[in-house]
Amino acid sequence: MAINRDQAAATDHEAVARNVEAFRLAQIAADPKALGALCSDDLSYSHSNGFLEDKAAFVANATDGKTKFLSITYKDPTIKIVGPAAIVRFHWMAEMMTDGKKVENSLHILMNWLKQGNEWKLLSRSATKL
């Protein structure tokens, strides 16, 4: 039985949504294996201060223990599938401990996910301070 285009788009949308949530949970857990599995080898990760990281640097820095996330919320996410790409936007709100201090952060996030084979991988991420 063939899957029609609407069914395929719905399946892709659900897969991207699952990966976005898995990424959020992996950030909180500082899980290098999970983060690495969700990211493309060609990842370009841009922080709100303009700091850029490739996949190796992102995973290493996100899991080095210098920052501990107490909570991360992805508020009002939108997902738009465009061929083998997915555009994801949301309001990122987080509480974290950095250098022994509790810090709150509010950002606008743009993620681009790329379908590689049957898997969706994070290709790029950009953050803007709100």
Question: How would you describe this protein?
Answer:
By secondary structure, the protein is α+β, with helices and mostly antiparallel strands. It has one domain: Nuclear Transport Factor 2, Chain: A (Roll). Helix content is 31%, strand content 52%. It is built from three helices and six strands. A six-stranded mixed β-sheet has the order 2-1-6-5-4-3. α1 packs antiparallel against α2. The protein is globular and about 55 Å long. The termini are far apart.
Gist?
This protein has 130 residues and is of the alpha+beta class. The protein contains 3 helices and 6 strands; from the N terminus they run H-H-E-E-H-E-E-E-E. The protein has a 6-stranded mixed beta sheet.
